[in-house]
Design a protein that fits this description.
Layout: H1 2-47, E1 53-56, H2 60-66, H3 71-85, E2 91-96, E3 99-104, H4 108-117, E4 122-123, H5 146-160, H6 162-187, E5 195-199, H7 200-217, H8 228-232, H9 234-245, H10 258-289, H11 291-304, H12 313-318, H13 321-333, E6 339-344, E7 350-352, E8 355-357, E9 362-366, H14 367-373, H15 393-402, H16 421-424, H17 439-456, E10 457-460, H18 466-470, E11 474-476, E12 480-482, E13 487-492
Helix pairs in contact: 6-7, 6-17, 7-10, 10-17
The structure holds protoporphyrin IX containing FE.
Protoporphyrin IX containing FE is lined by residues 138-139, 152, 159, 267-268, 271-272, 275-276, 279, 336-337, 340, 428-430, 434, 436-438, 441-442.
InterPro entries: Cyt_P450, Cyt_P450_CS, Cyt_P450_E_grp-I, Cyt_P450_sf, Cytochrome_P450_monoxygenase
Family: Belongs to the cytochrome P450 family.
Organism: Naegleria gruberi
Length: 494
Amino acid sequence: MTEEIGLIGSFNQLFTLSFFNVFLLIVCLVSYLLIRYTITFFTIYFKFKHLPGYVSFFPPLIDSMIHRKIYVHHLYDCALNSFKNNPSAKVVKIQLGTFSQIHISNDENLIREILVKKYKTVSKGNLFEPVGIFGPNIFSADSNDPIWRKHRTLANPIFSSSSHLKNVFRVTLEECKKMIKFWKSIYGSESDGTIRKVNISNELKSITLDVINRVAFDYDVGIFDKDAAHRDGIHDWINNLLNGLIYNFVLPKYLLSKSELLSAIFIVLFAGFETSSTSLTFMLRMLAKDQKLQEEILKEINQEIDNIDDITFEIITNKLPLLTSFIKEVLRTKTPIGTGGRIVLKKNGEVIGGVHYPKDTHIGVSYYSQHYFAKNGLDEFNPYRFLTTKSDSSSNELEKSDNNEFENDGKGPMGELSINLATDKLLPFSIGPRDCIGKRMALLEMKLILVFLLKNYKLKVPKGLETQQDSIKETYVVTRTIFEPYLVDFETRL
Ligand code: HEM
């Protein structure tokens, strides 16, 4: 009996001891991690001590939660506020715990140095690997990776040539007509053709998706020929589409392997419809809210065309300056992609603006901040801002240098419908060899859809929903987005 008690006692002692040991082990581990974290934090802090900016001891997600913001949006705002607080700074740092990023803005030459001159030494590295779900693609691959060059060289003419852009024009016009028929079938229409409470956030996704499929892949999915339930299962649909599309890609198929083709299709779909559709959503919402501006733009459209069938490629690319200025101002104030993420790849580091940055330094070209200060724009929305933009000979030279090396002429077939850092002080599509391959297509498509809708309908915020719609918050998850839909009434113009 005594022996038994003794055994139980020593077992309990052992258990208590080991429990204590485990506890001790956890405390030691946590302390070790905390010390390591603190050392790394201070190492980074002292490395960039000379730069103004925002520093928090907390890691990105916790710091964003403290500020009640989504991480990406928080990062953009940290950079913007740092520039606001240090108006003469061209470079600021953001340090969230052990993550740090150097943000560049406010200086066109510095932006050019990174995005144009040093695009190979300050490049994407493996920063965008997660976007390469099907393998490296044109967006995710590093500028030194032959895959990027191959894809870019093959895809560039498809998104820039005159004949391709005319095809974008033709297809977009056809899709606009189908879209209205589809809206009437799912939302119903009044006797005069008015369609109410259209969920533009959803609807514009459908049209940009249909257009990109037809022009980039020569594949007509006919999203407006199907029912709403089918359309709403959009993500399943994209997956099926990716597989179905593979043999219909316009790129010369024999030059790409099957997996290269899949990754190319994936990224063009991914990059090509979300940005255009959300930008258009913001544009329609702003016009629905501002009747005076809407009528002014309509007046400009009416001076060029009596009937929507009179619309031509030349009118969209060379005329309607107020509408072009409005589009630029929405892209300025609601920048779809806020930062161009890069990393210093050169073994011994790279000099940017005369300052040396070590290898692996994260660099963010802050399009978001650049737009805030563009033309002293600050927060004020001014749709007339870009009406006065004029190129002179020095800006022409800069425009040429900002264009990517795959193009001969910056404007190409796009006439006046282009955005330039030199004259507009904007770069929603970035600049240089890694700029947006679909920039011309996006501008053309957005402007044509706006003309089509304004010519046929008066856009209004639905009665009784003004306050609810005003309360919808826009944020950045990857691109600028909203979680609740914007709704618009489309009243037939008699
Ligand atoms: C409003 C619409 C759009 C905006 C604002 C936009 C913006 C951008 C920006 C800022 C970049 C550069 C990102 C960086 O700095 O890393 C980019 C790259 C890219 N965009 Fe767009 N984009 C739009 C529409 C499109 C469309 C319609 C397509 C489809 C053809 C497209 C395809 C791409 C591709 C493939 C790249 C990667 C190019 C490369 O790295 O060589 N985008 N876009």
